[in-house]
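# step 3/5: fold
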Amino acid sequence: MKRYLKICALLSALTVTVCGCDAQPTNSRPTSGVSSLIVINTVSEPSSSSSDVQANAPVRSDKIVSEDMTIAAAETLTVKSGETLYIRDGAEFTVDGTVNCERGGSIKIQSGGNLLLNGKLILDGSLELGGFLGIREKGEIYGAGLLTVLNSFEDINCEGTCLAKIKAPAPVEKDGVTYVGGVLIVNKKYSVPEDYGAELGLVIDDAYNALLQMREDTGYSLPLVSGYRSYELQTELFDYYCEIDDYDKVIMYSAQPGHSEHQTGLAMDIGELSEDYVNTEEGRWLTDNCCKYGFVIRFPKGCEHKTGYDYEPWHIRWLGKSTAKLVYDSGLTLEEFLGVEPM
């Protein structure tokens, strides 16, 4: 079936609202860079039995950003139902104002494309991330739609707020280790090899440096109780706990060998190994603020059936600032955020 493509150069077809009025066409690039760089493609689908376009054939409008442009602070770009906004390879689309992606509309950031958000993205439709998404300090994404990460969470730099639902890529196993969008996952279902982490020291450098920064910024002692644990040490600990406690209780507070995040060097036990730690000033601060330094509380309160472990306000997991902020904003456990099973 042939496609019939009609390039419509009428810039008034672009739904850009400036201070409540329709943007006027212009032959020169405006200072905001809005209408001159979005091309509207209208695609009609004819029936398979005729080469002529039927009058009632469905029509889809696409907005294509093929070079750098900006939506200024006073402007709103609407992606309506049935429309797709493409951000092409090499294009940098900066939003200082608002992009409103309605239900049934979609935004596709293609490989090499960049969306830099200083303003708002109201996402009631879908956003497919194959390129880069920068949510700057004052940038916001919210709405009932879905943000799908095609490759890696490293494709997002979140300094602002993202309240939209995020769909992670499928898990990928490499050398016996499972990653979801570049995030290493270890829990009761996913393990690491027996010799994994043998070259590690206390914890990975980025995580330890973030701990030092938290201490410097707050003045809290934030003592490191436990960092990296080898497979052998985890075996000794788990066997010991099973000797002094019921197995069904042990598996809720101690990981079996190969299933401990401590073996990755990405997890740390901070402060006091007690639920009462959250009632201290230091413990409350850690819960509320560790995401700003790249950590999440790995086993939140009331989420035992979602993580497979008891509440541990002292156990933090390093993800990096951007991904930690995304997880924190979502209000989900790491398993829920990555879309993986806990056990």
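# step 4/5: annotate
The chain has two domains: 4-167, 172-338.
# step 5/5: archive (pending)
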